[in-house]
Amino acid sequence: MKKIEIGHGSGGRLTRELIHEIFLKHLDSTELRELEDAASLNMHNQAIAFTTDTYVINPLFFPGGDIGKLSVCGTINDLIVSGAQPRFISAGFVIEEGFPIGDLETIVMSMARVAGETGIRIVTGDTKVVEKGNCDGVYINTSGIGEIRYRMSLKKISPGDLIIVTGTVGDHGISIALSRNEFQIETEIKSDCAPLNDLILPLFDIDGIKWMRDPTRGGVAGVLVEVCEVSGLGIEVEEEKIPVREDVRFVCEMLGYDPLYLANEGRAVIIASEGCADRIMNSLLSHPLGRESAIIGRVSDGFRGVRLRTSIGGERIIDLLDQEMLPRIC
Amino acid sequence: MKKIEIGHGSGGRLTRELIHEIFLKHLDSTELRELEDAASLNMHNQAIAFTTDTYVINPLFFPGGDIGKLSVCGTINDLIVSGAQPRFISAGFVIEEGFPIGDLETIVMSMARVAGETGIRIVTGDTKVVEKGNCDGVYINTSGIGEIRYRMSLKKISPGDLIIVTGTVGDHGISIALSRNEFQIETEIKSDCAPLNDLILPLFDIDGIKWMRDPTRGGVAGVLVEVCEVSGLGIEVEEEKIPVREDVRFVCEMLGYDPLYLANEGRAVIIASEGCADRIMNSLLSHPLGRESAIIGRVSDGFRGVRLRTSIGGERIIDLLDQEMLPRIC
Description:
The structure is a homodimer.
Chain A: H1 13-26, H2 30-33, E1 39-42, E2 47-55, E3 61-62, E4 65-66, H3 67-80, E5 84-96, H4 101-118, E6 121-130, E7 138-148, E8 162-165, H5 171-179, H6 197-200, E9 209-213, H7 219-231, E10 234-238, H8 246-255, E11 269-272, H9 277-285, E12 294-300, E13 305-309, E14 315-318
Parallel strand pairs in A: 5-6, 10-13
Antiparallel strand pairs in A: 2-7, 3-4, 5-7, 8-11, 8-12, 9-11, 10-12, 13-14
């Protein structure tokens, strides 16, 4: 199988070939084809959102996705939960010398598929190659631009607001943990990695939505702790309302993970006023990616921080972990 | 000295500390301080340019700059040569476990300095940490958004147009080669790494400018070959008109490099009609970064490809190299 050579990152003839034979073949857009250093874009409005993420996930291929799908979905999701309709994405590759070109093509095809399905365009890119041993296969940075359609703000959150998650929690984290092959556990668990624009966009018509975030690194717990730290409010979560797949719960118990801290790549946490909860839930539950949405808790001014009411009636304080349970989860 | 741990990339408490103690300390902008996944930005117009580059330069610190300065200058330059006034930059870090936090801070301070000097804002970021041996210190992706002020196009180029470079050629490439310490040569050569927005912006008032590019990987030769391939025209360059520092020329001769292929990080190649050459040269020569600007050649329809007229009256065909002479130059 053909492999990446140092020369593929040189800006010379080999780089040109790689761009044409892999990137332009699959990610064909008018802007990319120009091969300029910057893409010229026309926005519909002047209020835009801008985000960046580098993906260093290990392994590169996992049940439910690969680093290519993840890198495009992740940036789409960062934009949509910020109230912005995703429009344009950039892709910056760091590739390890010796990486199979066939694997690179599979990854690029995954990126192209998500872009095609969502109508979001990959318009500019960059390729660097480093010597064998200076990268773990491939790292991908995707940055994204969206048009702001809804003004989310932590400042809008007030006591009584509800906490909604748009699906089961922890699928991505557990699928990655198991795909590292350390545990020899066979399951059907797949990453929830998915683009959320189609699920979330209709919600921008609902005024009572205060704020959203996709619970990736740090999980739902990380998102809620941050909300409390910034707002000075409290959040009470009911453990039994948190949607967790049976097999994810089982693996968590075996391995000592808490699903609330596990990364998700196709879920959103939504904070909204109680009055619009029915409309939000109806909208979410009618979408394939939101069928297991649930109201899991409520904002309060009676205390600070995040409290979990456990299924047996106890109470537990939720705080940030010093470290992720699973490094390189995204 | 404190070092980066895997937990610094976890999204937990350590990540938070790193963000506050290093990134927000130096890169303080309203948008970054929000700590949202995407920055909300207001553009002045709807025609924007979008670019991305990942920097994997080795070594991280070199005469005239470091990876931080390079990563911000590089993205500013990609925007300005595309006819766009740079406005906003994102920064995505991949950091190797064990990397000294003091070095990271130096790098971030370099980024902050260029941003401060140019008025360009770093508005969103991401930090990932990989295990020791899976990255060579630190890789930085910067993506950038600018507002289009001038429409550059290769299609505007016509026979008789002049080729201008805005300064000496090859300084960056040679400074990197020598700072790798393989050759034991002592010189005063520094990278030309610099932000070009202030040099180039005044040129947008001159109609006769056709197209620009910053000659990084692949050098001036790479840029000119690409122009010829896309336009179907020829370019003749006069070797003796190409500004090359004496010490750069000396090192090139010793090591067998051709300055025309060496990377530059603070230069632009400008193609413009002959009629506006005086105005352009006056503007360039009056700026500290353009003092050694020179007209080095001319576009022709009498042949295809790039020809170099050598100082002894001969002629040489300039083509792309298969490989870069120096990998990891940016």
